[in-house]
Write a structure and sequence with these properties.
Largest sheet: none
Structural class: mainly alpha
Number of helices: 21
Distance between the termini: 54 Å
Helix content: over 70%
Oligomer: single chain
Radius of gyration: 23 Å
Length: 469
């Protein structure tokens, strides 16, 4: 009798565990819709990034801007994002993930309106800065929100949807920017903003944030909505509660805590990947891709159309491969592609400067630019943000996320501002610099970045600790 009862209890325990595993693996319509709503902000980012490329000729002709003035306009978005990044972690914890997205859209909408009705550079720069502030908030809160609502076995792919929607925004503006006046183009940028503002009413707040706030009943309701009405969320809710209790009992996060020896590998990897993402020249190429095509003798309108066609399939490929190949191999492949394309562009512009292969250099330029941006979209565009959300422990995640995001946008501003001047100085030399950065990045990734696919935070932290020993 006792053995029979024990066997029944064991079977019941195994059955409950199996149900919990099924619940964790379930992808509901609510999760899909919530992810879509959040990445509308990523789409806004993509539109803003692509705008400066396709609007350059129209704005400079209509308002009489110099190269320096337009470089300021193009790059000031990243400067605004620096300030958004500084407040992103604290704001998202204070008013919630949904509240932060609403808050960001205030600045995004105001920015697009200022650009659309601008009469001089002051309004242009103010609008671009406001849009950038929103982008800085989005760049932190969107991947964090998605990571907190999605099942762990698809978390990487869902967070990579952030990069996919950025590519969609870029592609849209690369296409319609050839036909639509720059003022109307700014007004079109309001559409995804309004869409997100409205649809945010219909998605749940992050259950982990609700647990952190001590609102246990709302945390369970949010989980139930995300996992399905018939799902047993008690184990996941209890895990969140226990984690948050440990978090509250532990020391509070401060920026200076990040510089302790135990966090050094995580900090080096997080900041290093962000610097590699920006110093590789990605911001400059995407913000001013039209001028790169023109410099190489290839029609910018045709080049933008080719990019628009290729970028979305490449981003979808990255979304699929991130859970198939893993983070580390995809990063290495992406950076290697960027490295080769930078070298190809350097040779292309070098041939053109010496009057060699004049009939082929426009084609070489097109191949190099398309190859670079495609390689970026597959891995380096989104993977640093995924890895950032995985390598830092809970007690320093807010401070770490703020610092890493700030580092990203700081160097993005430097590259975006200096890019036009560098291209005018020496196009071949500029891409040789980007080639060197990408080559060094391959060594950095191979030596420092661990594989985080399918591993718990504890496993990742253990591997990073072992690196110091």
């Amino acid at each position: 009798m006792t053995m029979s009862e024990n066997q029944r209890n064991l079977e019941a325990g195994l059955l409950n565990k199996n149900r919990n595993d099924i619940n964790e693996c379930r992808i509901t319509l609510v999760v899909l819709f919530s992810t879509f709503v959040s990445v509308c902000g990523s789409f806004c980012f993509g539109c803003a990034a692509g705008y400066s490329s396709v609007a350059q000729t129209g704005i400079t002709n209509d308002l009489g801007l110099s190269v320096a003035q337009y470089s300021m306009f193009g790059s000031i978005m990243t400067f605004g994002a620096m300030f958004g990044a500084i407040f992103s972690g604290k704001v998202s914890d204070l008013i919630g993930r949904k509240g932060t997205m609403w808050f960001a859209q205030i600045f995004c909408i105001a920015g697009w309106l200022a650009i659309a009705f601008a009469k001089d550079t002051v309004w242009l720069d103010a609008g671009r800065f406001s849009t950038g502030f929103a982008v800085g908030l989005f760049s932190y809160v969107i991947p964090v929100y998605i990571a907190e609502i999605t099942p762990k076995h698809v978390r990487g792919a869902f967070v990579f949807a952030n990069q996919l929607m950025q590519s969609c925004g870029l592609s849209l503006y690369y296409v319609i920017g050839n036909f639509v006046h720059w003022r109307n183009l700014a007004l079109i940028g309001l559409i995804p903003c309004v869409l997100q503002v409205v649809t945010l009413f219909f998605i749940p707040e992050s259950p982990r944030l609700l647990g952190k706030w001590g609102r246990e009943e709302e945390c369970r309701d949010s989980l139930q909505l995300l996992r399905g009405e018939d799902a047993d969320v008690s184990e996941e809710a209890n895990t969140i509660k226990e984690t948050m209790i440990l978090f509250e009992e532990g020391p509070k996060s401060r920026v200076m805590d990040l510089f302790q020896r135990r966090y050094a590998p995580s900090l080096v990897i997080g900041v290093g990947l962000m610097l590699l993402q920006q110093l590789s020249g990605s911001s400059g190429i995407m913000f001013y891709v039209g001028s790169v095509f023109d410099k190489g003798g290839f029609p910018s309108s045709i080049g933008s159309m080719i990019l628009a066609v290729i970028m979305i399939p490449k981003a979808i490929l990255g979304l699929i491969l991130v859970e198939k190949m893993g983070r580390r191999p995809l990063l290495l492949a992406s950076t290697s592609g960027m490295c080769l394309c930078s070298l190809f562009l350097a040779f292309s512009f070098s041939f053109r400067s010496y009057g060699m292969l004049d009939e082929l250099t426009p084609i070489f330029t097109c191949i190099g630019v398309v190859g670079f941006i495609s390689s970026f979209a597959v891995g380096m565009g989104g993977l640093p943000w995924i890895i950032m959300s995985e390598i830092f422990p809970m007690n320093v995640k807010v401070s770490a996320g703020t610092l890493v995001t700030l580092a990203n946008w700081s160097f993005s501003w430097i590259v975006a501002f200096a890019y036009n001047f560098m291209i005018e100085w020496n196009a071949s030399g500029t891409f040789l610099i980007f080639f060197s950065v990408c080559a060094g990045g391959i060594v950095f990734i191979y030596a420092m970045v661990p594989e985080t696919k399918g591993r718990t935070l504890e496993d990742i932290q253990a591997s990073l600790t072992d690196f110091l020993q």
